[in-house]
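Researcher: Please predict.
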Amino acid sequence: MNAVETRALHKDFAGFRAVNGVDLRLEEGRVHALVGPNGAGKTSLFNLLTGFLKPTSGRILLFGEDATGLRPDQIAKRGVARSFQITSLFEELSAVEHVALALQSRTDLGLRFWRDEAALLRFDSRARELVAEVGLEGVADQPVRHLPYGLKRALELALTLALEPRLLLLDEPTAGMSAEDVRRTIALVARVRAGRTVVLVEHNMGVVGELADNVVVLQQGKVIAEGPYATVRVDPVVVSAYLGQVDA
């Protein structure tokens, strides 16, 4: 089954076509990377898949079911979780508290944690498991304002895992990271991909080469190449699109 399918997908902004007739077939259980030069339409396509934009025309299917035009919360209920390029956290809460809130949000309690502090403790054990899964057990109870950027991004991944997604969408997961944090993130995504489909937007082609089973290359809103990284990286059309900087 395809986790994600698009059919003749278009998105226009005041006369500018950001996504131009994209047809995707992203197979379930694999890691797919959306890449391309700046302005290629990656972010617009990502926002269409996650409901933050509505298509001008075309269809989006998630796990075989039509999801065209659904809101982000409705898409989340289909088993889709998204991380963002810009991390937004509550600086005074700990990593465990963040994850417990994410777990609680999936119940009928929602985010009404201020009504009963004990309610949040119900999720403490599972929250600690998820924090450990992303390598944060040593800082689990520290306010996140003390965490370096790379660890905050790891926490964001734990928050998405708390939603138990079938489809995990990662927006620039290594953006702004040190080389050490990039290595840690590659290992982390490789670990959490088990049993899930992952779609990532990523500029770091070294990351793409290590993680992606399938690479989709966009230019000016269109898919210009798709396939394994080893094949795509030497495709003359792709090399031309990147002006010879595919490995940069």
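Model: The two ends are 34 Å apart (CA to CA).
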